[in-house]
Amino acid sequence: MTPNRAVITGVGRYLPDYVMTNKELESYVETNDEWIRSRTGISERRILKDPDKATSHMAEKAAIDALDDAGISAEEIDAIIVATVTPDYMFPATAGLVQKRIGATNAYAFDLSAACSGFLYALSTGGMMIESGRAKKVLVIGADKMSSIVDFTDRTTCILFGDAAGAVVLEEGTDGGIIDFVHHTEGDEQCMLYQPAGGSKNPASEETVKNREHYLRQDGRSVFKKATEGMADVSLEIMQRNNLSGDDVAWLVPHQANLRIIDATARRMGIDKDKVMINIEKYGNTTAATIPLCLYDWKDQLNKGDNLVLAAFGGGLTWGAIYLKWSK
Ligand code: UT7
């Protein structure tokens, strides 16, 4: 019997209209366009300005776009996973808000927290639900309103992040789809990248607000070192496990945190730059949304049978890679 495989049948996205340029950031912190572009590759990012709208709004729009691309209705969806570190609320889950708004009445829904690796963890989770035969159609969404936890007085972090959502529909198939994945976690006691307050360890109080502890903090240099190693190592690991050479890979789909990390990964994989999806210049680091945003931007260039390596590294620490054969 041919095993069930999980194949991507639809890709969608949502980008807020507001474009925040590097120039604008120069008016908030001591920085400059040249520094940001040369150190990160970022020129601009999108910001969800409407104070009434949160991550669920972007996730909902991306979900509708993906369903439309797949040509299926919301009622057909069995499960919804939203990967995010900026949920609307600690609970209820953002995935449930999306489920209600899009009318996915037959789906159960939950959030998954794995920071920048969130979309890959969610995609492999959704894939296993389909491979097991428990679900036939799963909506996997990566969505983050990073501007809600970015400190716009901290020049080491505020230049990096943007807001967006990306989504894919996974369905049962026999040809291609998710072939393999490798995920790693190294619980980070030192907290190189984290949000100090707002959880059960350090609940919101006047003190935490005063200390700006509800904003994300990052030890950029340490994370950079770990990310450069981790993303390349895990990409090579998945290639070796599946006997893939650089020539066999049609596209590297990397998390967009820093252009220098992406370049180093491609070099170690032996992949030409023209086979690497890069859109960090336009959107910055949108955390769980970067990889589906890439799939969306490149979807017209993808051909059936293309070997894709998706790779990410982020807070947690978490990192991973997925080997996917494009089947749309
Ligand atoms: O997606 C989740 C995972 N996150 C990542 O993968 C991010 C990893 N880290 C990075 O991408 C980089 O470390 C950053 C982009 C955050 C920083 O780049 P860097 O080349 O590592 O810079 P640095 O931290 O070593 O700082 C170099 C200098 C410092 O000045 P001094 O000490 O040399 O005088 C910083 O104070 O650049 C200074 N600096 C800035 N200057 C202008 C730091 N931020 C800025 C800024 N504008 N925005």
Describe the protein.
With 328 residues, this protein is of the alpha/beta class. 31% of the residues lie in helices and 25% in strands. The chain has helices at 22-26, 33-40, 55-70, 94-102, 118-131, 206-210, 220-241, 259-269, 280-283, 290-298; strands at 5-14, 18-21, 44-47, 79-83, 108-112, 137-145, 163-173, 177-185, 193-194, 217-218, 251-254, 307-314, 318-325. It has a five-stranded mixed sheet, with helices on both faces. Strands 8-13-12-11 form a four-stranded mixed sheet, with helices on both faces. The protein has a two-stranded antiparallel sheet with strand order 2-3. Strand 4 (79-83), helix 4 and strand 5 form a beta-alpha-beta unit. The radius of gyration is 19 Å and the shape is globular.
